[in-house]
Amino acid sequence: MSNVPAEPLGEKRTVRLQWAPAAAPRIRRELVQDLLARQVSPDVIDEAEIVVSELVANAIRHARPLADGTIRIHWKVKNNVVEVEVSDGGGPTVPRPAPPAMWAPGGRGLRIVRSLAHEWGVIDDPNGRTVWASLGGPSRRRSH
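Above: the chain's sequence. Below: its structure in token form.
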């Protein structure tokens, strides 16, 4: 299915999946399985599952794949804090929460991420864009 082993190895994990709508449910399952094995608190696991699903769905919907045709999902766990990153090939707009719209069919993804994450942000680089979120506590990042 992907390159994620069943047992956690170290505090960091990286998975590349083919650029497709099926990436969101696949990574959600793998992330939850990994966080359960690490005995992360159930609330943080639930939040991480929702956030990774929203970030991957947004990347598939609004951006391009990385040069190799994939999307990269990276996460690290320390002291019950989970930091998730989703990297894509970038897109025409900067990711930001959409204004509330009562009857809009979409546009809630980053508002959901913002409401669940302790912190979140966007990093642009020459190869694409990474959207990250820290769940269960503050990020260990020094620059936001």
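Residues 42-62 form the longest helix (21 residues).
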